[in-house]
Amino acid sequence: MKKLLLTIIPFALGVTVLGASSSVEKAHKEVREVMADAMAESDLPSVVAVAINLKGHRIEYAYGGVNWGKSDPVKTSSIFRIHSMTKIVTSIAAMQLVEQGKIQLDQDLSELLPEMAKIPIMKEDGKLVEPKSAITLRHLLTHTAGFGYPNRTYKMSEKFVPSEWKYEDFPRQFESGTQFLYGTNTDWAGKLVEKVSGMTLDRYFKKKIFKPLGIKSTYFNVPKKEQKRIVSMGDRGVDGKAELKEIDGDEVSPSRYPKEKVKNFSGGGGLFSTPSDFTKILRCMLDYGVCKGGKILKKETVELMMQNHIGDISLNPKGWHYDPGSCCNFNGIMDKESKWGLATMIDNTPESYGRKSGTLVWGGYRNTYFYIDYKSGIAASIYSQHLPFNHPATISLFEKFSEVFYKNFK
What we know:
This protein has helices at residues 2-8, 21-41, 86-99, 114-117, 137-141, 185-197, 201-213, 275-286, 299-305, 392-409, and strands at 12-15, 46-53, 58-64, 80-81, 121-122, 128-129, 233-235, 245-247, 272-273, 290-291, 294-295, 339-340, 345-347, 359-364, 368-373, 378-383, 386-387. The protein is of the alpha+beta class. A hairpin with a 5-residue loop joins β5 and β6.
């Protein structure tokens, strides 16, 4: 299939750059050579990558098809499930409400979200205990409220009986503010945005974030007429090492083309988006909240979001539980120097190609990733659609693509 793709669907490369034409030509040529060599060795049927900087330089790379092995080429306007890249959008929404004084970062959320506050903590022995500390927005945005993803970021107690559980989320794993556990915390932040704003998360995003940014193809529910733009999904088996095969869906995304409209909007992972749209979000955040449509956040708010908000709590993933066939293996993404801000991980380990310490980093379940390097004035993202998460097939491509951009436009 790789030879067929190389023959019928050669990669497409678009470059939009403001600056010296020699730099443009050099970057264009180098990206074309580097990525063509990389894709010749890759089993990925399609990928899109975009890099930008504050000087107006931009490179877009696309390879393969929307449908595996067919001639309809993938583009920056193609639609990908971005899963946990939704979290930065929800965090922006929550921080807008903080700016307006409608909610405070350290406010006890028991009255606003009583259904969340009453969820008990489950100890390792299966015993349930009532929490002693309140949950705050800061806890939700930093994943320190105790909510995880069962069997993906922690192993569920054998004594947990789903049929007897009466709460709206799985048991919390610890007291708020004491540990880090990646999970449904941002979904609760989304519910908070709905409660405080009086809007559904879908409507809030469209009105307060997408409209000012000129975003028109990012959805919780992709319109039927646009579903042909949704990119195929793939899977590598229960151990993540099998041959990559196309799938129609799984327990997270039951079908490539959604059959029913979503009514419960997930602030933690519900969005479909395009590389073009998501780059507008990255560009706005890189410019401290400024966009062509005005401002979506104040500069001081973005600066606050960039700071470490977990103190001495460790993000060292050594020994953490994950499902090797799906998620969430954080080895190589997090390390003992990593911290968490109010939307993303803070990567304090520089990359050899030039990415600086303090870069904001995160990604999505099906191998989509982004970073915002404020010190270099660069933001980039990559989009593929396969499991398991944190697979070298996509990670290595992102590093090669980034290396070219930093070399030419840092």
